[in-house]
Amino acid sequence: MEADQLVAEMQRIHESGRYSLVEVERPWSVHNPTISGEFSQPTALGWYLRREFGKLLKMGATIRVKASRVRRDLYDPELIRSISEDEWDLRKKKLFLFAAERIDLSLNRLEHYTGTAAKHFQRYILFTNYRMHVEAFLAFYPNCIKPANPNVQMPAYHHVLPENAGITLVNIGVGPANAKTITDHIAVLRPELMIMVGHCGGLRNHQEIGDYVLATAYLRADRVMDDILPREIPVIPNFIINLQLRRELEERKIPYRMGTVYTTDNRNWEFNQRQTVEAMKMSRSIAVDMESATIAANGYRYRIPHATLLCVSDKPLHGRPKLSAQAQIFYANSKEKHLEIALRAVEAIRAEYPEGLPNADVRSFDEPLLGSSGND
Fold first, then answer.
1. Do 316 and 269 meet the contact criterion of CB atoms below 8 Å apart?
2. What letter would DSSP give residue 274?
3. Backbone angles phi, psi at 126, to 5 degrees
4. 197, 322, 349, 350 — which has fewest CB within 10 A?
5. Contact by Cβ (8 Å): 298, 185
6. What are the angstrom distances between the C-alpha of 233 and each of 214, 217, 369?
7. How many domains does the chain have?
8. Where does a domain end: 45, 64, 91?
9. Tens digits of residue pLDDT in 164-217
10. Same structural domain for residues 80 and 135?
11. 341: which residues sit within 8 A by CB, 6+ positions away?
């Protein structure tokens, strides 16, 4: 079968009420010639599966699809056991990062949180925590798909292109908990990249309100993933994304700094600042926010290229806290330019890497075959 026929067969099996079992036979592999795994809701993953199956078939692999178990109801008490990632057998090569039940649950929660169906999510994901960036996105793409209910927790907006090659913007609100929640579920869709487009507190003397920050590292004080990704594990942005964001900033002659972003789970860290400020100094941080390191850490966990482009909205250590009147003026003057930089960077990356960003640096030695944008 061709790649599109394989995905169509998976969808037929899905509609019959069962999971699809995909078996990939690779004659060139000495240690793992045959790898199998179950899938659910293949339409939502269609662009990704067609691309990865196509690569494997071109290399000489044989791919078979057949019906597997009856799909588990999301109200089944046994569901909780089947979605846990704690008991993965690292000795066995896997086909995909997620179990079929996890796919079902995550795609259901995506619709719940964002007000849009999982199939509408595009390959290129931008995150913001401000309505003003949503307004700018709607000005750039007035015909984008919008939430059926605008009052959902994290509304998403989709500029749709064929094969999901467009751009999605998600307003995640404030804080690392939301950032982890949404990236946990979006990861199932295997996006090409994730970029945080937010605001930050500038920490250096020679930063001005409206200057930009391009993260090159993070100090993870968000704490939401300390038990599953220890803080000593290095997490850095994707070099290619950063390079393109930097080009956009340079072409516009916009002031910016590159360096460490300190991400905290405490919006009022200024009230008990001794330990926080000391950590900022030791890490040479240039900015503080509440989401960037969380998105980066989940990008690392789930093998998704990621980056952070922030705009300085206040300078808490220099007598310029974020106050309502000044903040509203800053927001009005910055929103279109900030979002446009990210959009143009994505467009350039999409043109240069239509088959996905090279990301061997985030693949592990026990990597699932369909774990990222490449096949090993």
1. no
2. H
3. -110, 140
4. 322
5. no
6. 21, 12, 23
7. 2
8. 91
9. 999 999 999 999 999 999 999 999 999 999 999 999 999 898 888 889 999 999
10. no
11. 212, 245, 248, 249, 252, 254, 309
Calpha distance 98→370 (Å, rounded): 10
**336 falls within a domain:** yes
Question: Helix, strand, coil: what percent of the chain each, to 5?
Answer: 40, 20, 40
Give 76 or 121, the one with higher predicted confidence: 121
Confidence class for position 128, pLDDT limits 50, 70, 90: very high
Give the model confidence (pLDDT) of 264-303 as tens digits. 998 888 888 888 899 989 999 999 999 999 999 999 999 9
Q: Is residue 318 part of a domain?
A: yes
* Residue that the structure tokens 């990210």 belong to: 342
13 plus 128 within the same structural domain: no
Those residues with Cβ within 8 angstroms of residue 111's Cβ, 6 or more apart along the chain or in another chain: 117, 118
Q: Is pLDDT larger for residue 135 or for residue 369?
A: 135
- Which pTM does this prediction carry? 0.92
Given the structure tokens 């990008």, which residue do they identify? 299
DSSP line for 192-232: SEEEEEEEEEE-STT--TT-EEEEEEEEEE--TTTTTS-TT
Strand order of the sheet with strand 18-25? 34-39, 18-25, 62-70
Instruction: State the residue range of the domain holding 149.
Output: 107-352
Alpha helices, H only, the chain: 3-15, 46-58, 79-82, 100-114, 131-140, 176-186, 239-251, 274-282, 292-301, 324-352
